[in-house]
Design a protein that fits this description.
Blueprint: E1 2-5, H1 10-23, E2 33-39, H2 41-54, E3 60-67, H3 73-77, E4 79-87, E5 95-103, H4 109-113, E6 123-126, E7 146-149, H5 157-167, E8 172-174, H6 175-178, H7 181-192, E9 198-205, H8 210-223, E10 227-231, E11 237-244, E12 247-252, E13 258-263, E14 269-272, H9 278-286, H10 293-301, H11 303-315, H12 322-339, H13 351-360
Parallel strand pairs: 2-3, 2-6, 3-5, 6-7, 7-8, 9-10
Antiparallel strand pairs: 1-4, 4-5, 9-11, 11-12, 12-13, 13-14
Helix pairs in contact: 2-9, 8-10, 11-12, 11-13
């Protein structure tokens, strides 16, 4: 069932939602959360379709906020709210309200969304494109327990990761991180099968793919070894190679669907590592509403620090022996300590200067 409202109010939208539920014979509210999607007209259809598919696992009230561009100064000084209310089969297993904001009201979207939130239910805000630099300080983000962005949609994804690290607030997450969940699970399971020490890691994938950077930062943070980024034609992540004291451990996915896991001394095995669509990613994020400390640690490791460690290892001759790997990791730690964190202290050393210092030792 679909109800169109023109030049309306939040009260009228709430009334339409109640009438729609009664009309289809389900007056009770069976939703477990409110999902707020902040997007534009171009990306609204895809985002709403993904949210509708995810609602089969997480019945929710979905509010789509679309700020319409006003063409004339007169339009910008006025205010209008149009809404499209969907219940029943039109909205998956939940209910949907598409809100189009015109004029000055587009700068106060939180005042429109607030009366439409489900009472005593968690709130998740998702920006499919053009997320604010600090989601927690955004008026809509301040209403939510979880704030979902997607750095893959940014023009400069790697630089966007650095901005996300500076503004991180517990409850923030990113779909670029969600995309590597199967990779993290498979790599952790592979290391559980061997009693070895990891010396170095190489992460191979597309250029300007934030998921590759996040996976590399997670491995560097958890293993405390140099991690090198190499480029491939994709799609997405294509391989992770770990040099260990027992031999190489390689997870290689060349076609974006089926991967091959090889561990020295064991037969190779095929692993299903399908690239997932947006609906699956959103459904995964809605399963947990607590802060993701692992994401925070990987994000705060930093792209710059990742490059410093890789350059120091390269200066020591590529994939180093165990003592050399320890020396490279120690050199990075010493350089960070010398750089200092208080205002007024010396600047961080450049990757080239760090590599020269590591090579001199």
């Amino acid at each position: 069932m679909k109800i169109d409202l023109t030049d309306t109010t939040a009260g009228e939208i709430n009334k339409a939602l109640i009438e729609g539920r009664r009309a289809i014979g389900t007056p009770a509210v069976g939703m477990v959360l409110t999902l707020v999607i902040v997007t534009d007209e171009e990306n609204a259809y895809d985002a709403l379709r993904a949210a509708s598919d995810a609602s089969r696992e997480h019945p929710s009230r979905t509010l789509v906020v679309i700020r319409r561009v006003s063409r004339t100064p007169r339009d910008r000084t006025g205010s209008r709210l149009d809404a499209e209310v969907r219940v029943g089969a039109e909205a998956g297993t939940g209910e949907t309200a598409v809100l189009r904001l015109y004029g000055e009201v587009s700068d106060h979207a939180d005042s429109v969304v607030l009366p439409l939130l489900l009472p005593d239910a968690p709130v998740v805000v998702w920006w499919p494109v053009r997320a604010p630099l600090n989601p927690a300080e955004d008026p809509l983000g301040a209403l939510a327990q979880r704030r979902v962005t997607d750095t893959y949609a940014a023009e400069q994804p790697v630089r966007e990761l650095a901005a996300r690290a500076e503004s991180y607030t517990p409850g923030d997450t990113d779909l670029a991180w969600t995309r590597i969940t199967p990779w993290r699970s498979m790599l952790a399971a592979a290391l559980d099968q061997v009693d070895c020490e990891v010396r170095s890691v190489e992460v191979e994938g597309e250029e300007f793919n934030p998921s590759c950077e996040l996976l590399a930062m997670w491995l560097a943070d958890r293993l405390s070894v140099p991690v090198r980024r190499s480029l491939s034609s994709g799609p997405g992540l294509t391989a992770v190679r770990m040099e260990t004291t027992c031999g190489p451990v390689v997870l290689d996915r060349a076609d974006g669907s089926l991967a091959n896991l090889s561990i020295k001394g064991q037969p190779g095995r095929a692993v299903a590592l399908q690239r997932r669509d947006t609906a699956e990613l959103i459904a995964e994020e809605l399963r947990r509403l607590d802060p993701d400390d692992t994401y925070a640690a990987a994000l705060r490791y930093g792209v710059e620090r990742l490059a410093m460690g890789a350059d120091a290892a390269a200066a020591l001759g590529g994939a180093p022996e165990e003592p050399a790997a320890e020396a490279a990791a120690t050199e990075v730690a010493v350089a960070e300590a010398e750089a200092g964190t208080e205002e007024g202290e010396a600047e961080r050393p450049t990757p080239n200067s760090l590599a020269r210092k590591a090579a001199s030792k």
